Fold this sequence. Notes:
It is a single chain. This protein is an alpha+beta fold. The protein is elongated. The N and C termini lie far apart (about 80 Å). Helix 4 runs antiparallel to helix 5. The protein folds into three domains: about 15-130, Beta-Lactamase, CATH 3.30.450; about 140-215, Orthogonal Bundle (Helix Hairpins); about 230-375, Histidine kinase-like ATPase, C-terminal domain (Heat Shock Protein 90, 2-Layer Sandwich), CATH 3.30.565. It has a five-stranded antiparallel β-sheet with strand order 2-1-5-4-3, with helices on both faces. It has a five-stranded mixed β-sheet with strand order 7-9-10-12-11, covered by helices on one side. It is built from twelve helices and twelve strands. Bound molecules: adenosine-5'-diphosphate and magnesium ion. Magnesium ion (MG) binds near residues 278, 281 and 337.
Amino acid sequence: MADGGAVHQIGSAPPPAKFFEGLLRASPDGIAVTDAAQTIVLVNEAFCELLFAPWREVVETSALVWMQQLAGDAPQRWAELEREARLKGTCRGVELRITKNGETRYLAVNASRLRTPAEAETGMLSIWRDVTDQIAAEKALLASQTRLWRAERLASVATLAGGIAHEINNPAGSILAAAEFAQLVKDEPEGPQQAETAFKTIIEEAHRCGRIVKSVLALTPGWQSDRAIGDLNNVLRDSCDLLIEHANERGARIEWDLGTDLPAILLSPQEIEQLLSNLVRNSVESGADRIVVITRAHQTVRLTVEDNGPGIPAEIRERIFDPFFTTRRQRGGTGLGLSLVWGIVLDHGGTLHVESASGGGARLVAEFPRAVLPGSATREGA
Ligand SMILES: Nc1ncnc2c1ncn2[C@@H]1O[C@H](COP(=O)(O)OP(=O)(O)O)[C@@H](O)[C@H]1O
Ligand SMILES: [Mg+2]
């Protein structure tokens, strides 16, 4: 194509040279022809404007020297362009950044090899387009996307911070009340027993604060709580009281269908508790009034939470695990719940996916690998 592509025209008489000169003049893109020694032999006005120079200074000078005078990456890029056009015949879309007198321009250059009629020397035709405005528009778009993304994040962080403040405020209030009570009764005859109860409350509530802080820390990449080999059902049973209360207060009922003989898994009880709590809360918040928690032994240990709410529309299923994705922002959603659940399942070496429940509600399924028990081979052998 570069050396031999045909030119098509109406009529058979070749147009006069003036006609071709007119074409070069009319081109909005810069056009330059260089010879084998990289001397610029022909340019149009548009090209000279792009180089910030009158044509007299351009013609018969070396293209290489020009490139070296222009700050930016022009010399390297020109060299690449030259090499590729020579080797392959054409080279498209090489971008050059040139700076002169404090002004920067971005130029997209296409080039192709030109042979003299004798096929001896190889020159090059290059077409230069100013893409400065286009690049500025792309940068502005990127900047506004980044701003939007930051604003979105800030809003979510604010919601999250509000949530944490609320969660910490309750136990902090209980601690204060219990401590004041203990102080008040300490000199009375029944004081020591009463104070003992107050201390218990203080310790429990302080632990609760600690758990909340941990759940926030769990959102930070790289943080891991302690793992031990354990029984998933036991952990679920230990963490169910608060959840049952939470669901009941909102008119929902939780059913437990915990499979027997579940193999052990390597787990962090706190994380499993967080996982279940987030899944159940999501079901309650979706408006479901029946939630079923199921565990089963398969190749893996499977935990399913399903509800009879409205379900999760197919078009958002891809995004529900993204951090900060929520359809409930107005109602205090942070969009962190499922991303936390995802992180926890992944950290446990498992997988998580979403399905539709038989009645159209949502069903979230986590699969955990069976633990490899130390010494299990010995026991079998014994
Ligand atoms: N059980 C469910 N039923 C319907 N939609 C759900 C359910 N669980 C999650 N979702 C959808 O997934 C989104 C993300 O959930 P999540 O990450 O927990 O954030 P949040 O609960 O703060 O909105 C929710 O906003 C909701 O649209
Ligand atoms: Mg949630």
